[in-house]
Amino acid sequence: MITRKSVRSLSATERANFIGALLELKKRGRYDEYVHWHHHVMTPSVLPSEPHDANYRNGAHRGPAFLPWHREFLMQVEADLQSIDRNAFLPYWDWTRDAKLSDPATSPLWGADFMGGNGLETDQWRVQDGALAHKAGNWPVPPYPNDDLPGPGLKRQFAKMLPTLPTEDDLKLAMAEIFYDTPNYDQTPFTVGFRNRIEGWITIRGDSRVKSAGSQLHNRVHLWIGGNMAPMTSPNDPAFFLHHCFVDKVWADWQGVQQENNPDGAPHYAPLRDGPPSHNMDDPLKPWTRTIREVLDIARLGYGYEPSPSQSMILAEAGLATKGGPPAQPGRQ
Ligand SMILES: [Cu+2]
Predict the structure, then answer these.
(1) Which residue from 106, 206, 113 is spatially nearest to 159, judged by alpha carbons?
(2) For residue 294, how far is its CA from the centre of ligand 1 (angstroms)?
(3) Is the peptide bond prior to 271 cis by the omega test (within 30 degrees of 0)?
(4) Ligand 1: distance of its center to the CA of 34 in Å?
(5) 221 C-alpha vs ligand 1 centroid, how far in Å?
(6) How far apart are CA 133 and CA 139, in angstroms?
């Protein structure tokens, strides 16, 4: 059983081992396949040799498969990390914790011993420090698909596209959702459900309780980091995996709450059938073999999460508890 810990709980050795395994996967050419998997599932004709499909529906975003597709993706990456370091696991980044900082760029996540920091405007917003910096030579990234930033290298533009990270209040709205997803299983601001909420499409237009303008939750984090995290090739920035690991944890917590409060509503996934292609319960998660049904229970998949203080507090305040995590201690971060 793997326990995925918060980025804030990692020891210096765990941080170094994680970065070391990423660099090794990059060197082997394996890492760049992750970028392609993510890009491909959105646009099937990324490479000239690949088929064009007029009825294509994004199999990983803007629909119910968003959460299961990324769960499977993370497990594939974690298995590769473990082939290098058998104790490796993906850590999660609870961005609601960093939303409380006066400057979230000071989070330990962005330290030179971990992900490295923000990009530098006078250097095309390239990351300047740590192992992923362009000048360190370990992390080749193709030029950003934007004429203003033509050069290669990992780029970030913190708080440029959107000024703030999602908060605990934003996350509470997601945890309070009762349905997993509802017709038309899409990304309008009016499509009710946990998936559309956590993916980040329910904006002020669709719900007046939303407090900040623009994209929410998962989408907002991509845009807050900016640079390589903004386009379809976002796994180019390894911060992608720490971000999605937290999204996966929030989903697992939500599933736990639903299991307790509404066991008759199991499996807490929709649609079971007749939904958009690639988004039904028994559809395979392309390009892999497992189906959505097969990735719904993380305990069966062999991993769990270290509780995060802010997430535990949200559950406790709402009178909810999930199995396996100790109760939150108010005020402790
Ligand atoms: Cu994402």
Answers:
(1) 106
(2) 21
(3) yes
(4) 13
(5) 8
(6) 7
Q: What spacing in Å lies between the alpha carbon of 244 and ligand 1's midpoint? A: 6
Question: Measured between alpha carbons, how far is 222 from 219 in angstroms, rounded to an integer?
Answer: 5
| Buried b or exposed e, range 215-233, using 16+ CB within 10 angstroms | bbbbbbbbbbbbbbbbebb
Rounded to the nearest whole angstrom, what is the distance from the C-alpha of residue 174 to the centroid of ligand 1?
16
What the block records as the tokens of 45 is 């004709």
Ligand 1 mean position, distance from CA 234 (Å) = 7
Any idea what DSSP says for residue 291? B
What is the CA(230)–ligand 1 centre distance, in A? 9
Q: Contact, 68 vs 74, CB < 8 A? A: no
Residue 48 has pLDDT above 60, yes or no: no
Strand pairing report for 303-305 and 126-127: unpaired
CB 166 within 8 A of CB 126: no
Burial of 198 (0-12, 13-18, 19+ CB in 10 A): buried
Cα 219 to ligand 1 centroid, rounded to whole Å: 7
Please state the rounded mean pLDDT for residues 159-176: 96
**Ligand 1 centroid – CA 264 distance (Å):** 31
Token output for 95: 């961005």
Of residues 30 and 147, the one with the higher pLDDT is: 30
